[in-house]
Every structure is written in structure tokens, then in C-alpha cells.
Prior knowledge:
single chain; alpha+beta; 4-stranded antiparallel β-sheet
Amino acid sequence: MIGLSMAAPALAEPAVGPAARPATVPITRVLDTEWEVRLAPGDANAAAHKAATRWLPARVPGSVQTDLLAAHLLADPWVGEGERAAQWVGLSDWQYRTVVTLDAATLARANVDLAFDGLDTFATVRVNGTAVLRADNMFRSWRLAAKALLKPGRNVIEIEFESPIRKLLPRALAEKVPLPGAYDTAFGDEPKGRQTANYVRKAAYHYGWDFAPRIVTIGVGKPVRIEAYDGLRLSDFHVAQVHLDDSVAVLDAAVEIDAATPRTVDVRVDIAGPDGTTQRLDRRVTLFAGVNPVVLPVRIERPRRWWPVGYGKPDLYAVTATVTEAGRVLGTATHDIGLRTVELRRDTDRWGRGMAFVINGVPIFAKGANLEPADSIASRVPAARTDAVLEAAVAANMNMLRIWGGGYYPDDAVFAKADRLGLMLWQDFMFGNALPANDAALRESTRLEAIDQVRRLRDHPRW
């Protein structure tokens, strides 16, 4: 229904001692430069690919494959026999590293976190030599407290990636009853009927599909950040539609604040309508130590609804939450929201049961297609290319696209673009034509993945 639910950085509280000090603005630093990558020392493929064992420039977000292409150490996998020649990359272990210089002011903050929006896929993160995170799911985000391991001056962040095929093949071979997979490999790295893809939360099409080569990517696939703050963090912002009719919309603007200690802050919500109208709500809140849910009720008179393309205008409201202390902005988040009602109608007739999406009381004749990954390496796809695909769908008289479950969850910009165009998106969870392993660790990882993605996407108007 509404906006975009994204975690926002940070608020402030004294780092040490009882004396209060002025609130300080959070620091967010994106770590997207000066990364290096190399084939892990001692890897079985090191002898055949000695040039890859030296540190090479790496792009983050990116993948090992794109870095090897840039270094002219890999033939183009999409040309001739390049796919076959590229298989060793996904069968190898890799190391990334970067050096981050931090000043004393940053480290004086009570909290200094490392945030990873996506690691592909089995990764161990080390800060100045100490392992702090072991990731196992490319569809999850990760946050860890890192202040205790950081120091003024140079800090080394390393990420070690294991080959998902080599890591999981012993398990696949040990299964008495093999799990049904999608496609057998053509390159002999897995026996027929023994796919490792069933045992990992990774894009299934990386292992080869009818439209895609087998390019088993490895790398830092999404942004990495350092976030420094003083005991308070605006961790979530969500706008829930409580009621909608032609005369009024009632919403709950829900802010979630993580606080290390009790304190008082001001929470403000601003709403800007598509017709230029604005309103503002303010609340002073005394926080407790822990996660604080703060809900401000919003009432919009004579609301303008979001409609799918072909049925009306996709009107959006901009809703902004701001947290301040002593007049300083300590956290903010903005969502573009669409007001609408949605019903899945399953009428019974003489042929069986129908299936119709009813938006704002109007049954929608759904016209569309699958939206599949545009490249085996997601970081190679520029935003302009995705925008053009969505615009082309509208130009072709489509109003719904299904985001196929064998790929990956698109970035926020894709959903925001669809909102503006009036495109409905059917978002699959990432399960494509294969039976996943039924074990506790994989189930728990998938559960946390679902929480991440539903929180991120729950507010969009086309669901």
C-alpha cells in the first residue's frame, strides 16, 4: 500500500559518563572504493591461475567475475566458449580487502557499526584480523557492532568467500535420496542429479538456466557502510493504511527507534500530497532502553488513490519521519506511499475458481510478463537499463510484472520506478524450480531473509 520501508541511520546519546552533551549527527560512510580481490592462497586453482593470486583492483558492489574481466584474466563468458572457461571462478575461494582510515571523532561515538546489504554468499568478515561475521545467504542484510575492534588510523576489513559448489558438494553427494534440482551442469563439476543449489540461499539461475549461462558469482554484491552514532538509531519507518474511503484515509506512521539508554526526543512526520497539500504531526517521546515503537496517527481528507496503469493516475504521497534532539536531526527517512485497497477475488463458477486482483473495488485485467534478471551479474545492470525495461512494459500495455523466483530481489529503485509508472509487481520469494533442503539452519536463514525482504518491500502500493 504505502511507501518504502528502509532502515535509516542513527541517533545520539553520551558515549561515556553521566554528563549530557549536545546531540551529534550520525555519520554514514559508504565503503565503495579501494577494495582489492585475489584468489585465496593455497586454493586448488592457484597453480593454473597464478595471475589471479595477486591483489587486483575490485569493484564494490560487484563480483569476482567482473573484476577478473576488468583485469583481462577472464574471457567474456557470453562469447564463444567463454562460459566453459569461466567455471573455475565459481569453484574457487576468494579474498577481498580494503583499508579504512578512521579519525578519533568517529571512534568517539558510542556505536560504530558495519552494515552489509548483501554478500554472495558464504563469507567470513574480519576486522583487523578478528572474525566478526559468517554470512550464508545472499538475500539477507547484515549489521554488526565493530567499535571494539576498530582503532584510529588504518583499519583492515577482509572478506573471505568460499566456493558454494565445493562447500556443498560433499553434502549433496551424501544424500541417500537426492533432492530434485532445476538443471544439471554441463561442465562436470557436479554429478547428474546432485545439484548443490538446493542447499544454499543463492540465486538459482547462477547455476545455469534455459535463458542464462552457468556463472556462479562470488563477491560483495551490494553496498557496505560504516555507521557511527551515539546510542540511538532510527531502525525502521513504516506507514500502515488503517482505513481508506473517498472521504478520508487513516494511516499509522510507525517509527522504530533503538535506544541504548532512556532519553527524550522529538518525532515529526511530514506528509506532502500529489496535489501540493502538506501537513505535519509532532510528538515528544520519552524512550526506554531497547527498541521503541512510536506511532503517529495520520488523517488525509479527500485522499487521492494510487491506480494501476490504464485505470487511473498512480498518485503518491511523500511521508517523511524525522527524529531530533535539541534541534539537531538525528535520523530521517522518506517513503513515497500509494493509497489503495487490494482484494484477491476467488469467485467460483462452473469451470472452477477464478483469480482476480481488485484494486480500489475495480477488478483489474492483469497483462504482463516475467521480469527476469537482465544479466548473470546483477551489479553490471545499470539503473537506466532497468528503467527502460519497465517503461517498455507500460508502452506494451502491460500493468503487472512477476519478479521470478529463480533470480534475486530487485533494488529499491526498481520498486520506486514501478510505483511511479503504476506497474503492479508480483514478487516471488526466491525459490525456482527446485526443492530446498529441509534442515533447521537453512529454514532459519530463509525466515530471516523473509523478514528482511518483507520489511523492505511491505509498503509498496502494487502488492
